[in-house]
Structures are given as structure tokens and as C-alpha cells.
Amino acid sequence: MDESSICFIDGFHSKLYYRGYSIEDLAANSTYEEVTYLLFYGRLPKRKELEDFKGWLKENREIPNQVIELIKKIPKDTHPMEVLRTVVSYLGNLDPGRSDLSLDGMYRKSIRLTAKMPTIIAAYHRIRTGREIIDPDPKLDHSANFLYMLHGEKPSELWARAMDVSNILYAEHEMNASAFASVVVASTLADYYSAIVAGIGALRGPLHGGANEEAMKQFLEIGSPDKVDEWFNNAVAQKKRIMGCGHRVYKSYDPRAKIFKEYAKKFADMYGGELKSIYEVADKLEKLVIDNLAAKNIFPNVDYWSGIPYYGMKIPIDLYTPLFALSRVAGWSAHIIEYVTNNRILRPRLYYTGELNKPYIPIDQR
Ligand code: COA
Prior knowledge:
The protein is an all-alpha fold and 366 residues long. The chain is built from 17 helices and three strands. The protein has a three-stranded antiparallel β-sheet with strand order 1-2-3. A hairpin with a 4-residue loop joins β1 (7-10) and β2. α3 packs across α6 (103-128) and α8 (157-170) packs across α17. The protein is globular and about 65 Å long. The relative contact order is 0.15. Coenzyme A binds next to α15.
């Protein structure tokens, strides 16, 4: 369990690598499709390999009618992460190769699901807001196509690139809680879909992926830059967690947060108004966190700044964690494939702290 060649985090020096490539290099030069290939196969694709891979993703974007009918039946106030969990499970039911644990079978399913996750999320959002579902556009790349299916309009270059960079930044992060949940399930040789459903369940919580939604709600709750000091002092006095800050592995500034912050600034400068004010709230709060909590190794993490570009792209807050999931499915899949290729059931032990050899007491004598 303790060896992997997928991802390395140097939490003391703000460094993150996917398969040896720095996150800064990938965010500046790569695409989500290429990064997914890299995570799955361990190396950057040649041009023809990338074109084929993109083609497979495009071919798999559509979701069957049965799935659309299922989504229509889900209560409209259901959190989209719960919808994703249900639909991924159902897609497993519909896949005749669901129990195929061969390497080819696992790659096929990983590509199938990576391609379909954005379609599921966009379809649910369109249905719950009473609008027509938009079919995927094969002319658009993965991230741009998601925005198109969500809003019904082709995104600008900035929006498409911001979404793609978000997908690159969220694609993988070593053995975090959701990757662990996926790998534990896969290690029993259960099917791929059960493993991904476990990952989605773990990601939903506010201490993990759910933090990007909570961070944005926190900025909105603060309301304006002049209220940040008072809000922060109250939070510290009440021992409240600042959402989007702190990390089990990073004891320094999360390198992904730095890149998201650059996009947050771009969107704030471009749109001004409310977005600029939210940016200023976040920036001021970040300074207070660093001045006061850095001694406890608490710095902004990936979920702190990601919401501001999303807000600028008019994405509803409850889709922020699903956005994390639709990207992270690549990392979960890479870990499942790597682990199962050399499988041993994951079975941690616990330190027992109870008593032993207690005499059984008949119920009337207790
Ligand atoms: N704000 C304020 N204090 C925080 C904090 C935060 N976001 N995160 C941790 N701390 C404090 C804890 O209160 C604790 O203080 P204490 O020693 O005085 O009791 C100390 O830092 C260690 O916290 P701990 O919960 O043991 O750290 P962890 O490694 O178990 O937790 C997280 C990591 C991510 C769960 C935690 O930092 C957190 O809850 N962050 C907010 C949610 C979040 O952004 N999650 C996304 C992670 S990518």
C-alpha cells in the first residue's frame, strides 16, 4: 500500500508532481485529456495517442436514456454529489463488462466514466432547473464541453482554459480519503463502479472535497472586506475551522491554491463588482490565516480559491464538489488500476483497548 508511481507531494516545500511532472508545468502547458492519459498510462502521450484518447472520451460522453429517466426521478433538492453517486452506480448496472477486472476492462471503464461524469452533472443541473438537456458537442474538448452542456453556450477562451486548469489541478492527489476509499473497495476485487462510488461518498464531506463549497459560502457569509477582521476573530475565539485552509500533508502553501488564486484574480479583475469584493474578502482572510495560523502549519489549500473562478463562470455553489469529482475520477481510476494490478486486500488492524475474557452475564442478572 505504501508504494506508488502516480503522484508525489512534498508538503513542506509546496510541491506536487503527477508522474514526475510538476503541477505548475502541467497547469501552464497541458490539458485535462493529456493529464488523464499521463495518470492512466504513466507517460505523456504522443500526438496520435492523444488524438485517439480524446476520441475515446468523446465517443463515451453521452449517457443512456435510462440514466436520463433516472435523473428525472431524483428529487430536485438532492445534492448533486448524491446524484452522481446514484448515477455512477446505475451506470455500473448497465455495463455488461462491469465485473471484468482485466487491465483492458479497467481502462475501458475508467475512460467511460471519466467521459460521462460531466454529462451527468450538467444533465442533472439542467433538469432540476427545468431546462432542456444539452447533448455533448464532439467539436469541444472535455472541459469546454462541460461548460457548454451546463450553460447551453460555447464558453469563452478564458472560461474554457480556467475549467481545464481546474480539472488538471483536481485530477489527482495521492492517497487522500476518497482515493483510499476507492482503493479499499477495489482491493476486495469488487467491481470498478463500486470503488468509484466509495470515492464519491468520501469526497462529499466538508473536510475533504466538500470544502470548496464551504469556502465560497464562508466568503459570502463574511459579505465585505471590512467585516473580515471581526469574522476571523470570532472564528478563532469559537475554534471554528476556516474552510479551504489546513491540510494533512501540506505544511506550506498548497501549490494548487496558488494557481487557482491567479485565475481568481483574473476573473475578479475582469468582472469587478461582487466578484471583486469576494476576491478581496478571500485575500484579506488569507492574510489573517497566514499571519495567525502559519505557526500551526495552516495555509490555504486547493479548495480555498477554486470557487471564485467557478462563481465567475456562473456555476452554482453546490456543483463545486461535483466539479472536483468529475476531475478526480482520473486519479481514483489510476490508483485502482495500479493497486489491483498488484493486489492484496487492504485490511488495517486496530489497537484493541477493551478488556478480555469477561464472563457472560445472563440478561436477568445485568
Ligand atoms: N482552521 C482553523 N484551525 C484548523 C484548521 C482550519 N481550517 N485546520 C486545522 N486546524 C487546527 C485544528 O483545530 C488543530 O488545532 P489544535 O491542535 O489546537 O486542536 C490543528 O490545526 C490540527 O488539526 P487537525 O484536525 O488535527 O488536522 P488534520 O490534519 O487532521 O486535518 C483537515 C486536516 C484538512 C481536515 C483540516 O485542516 C480541516 O478541517 N480543514 C478545513 C476543511 C478543508 O479545507 N478541507 C479540505 C482539505 S483539502
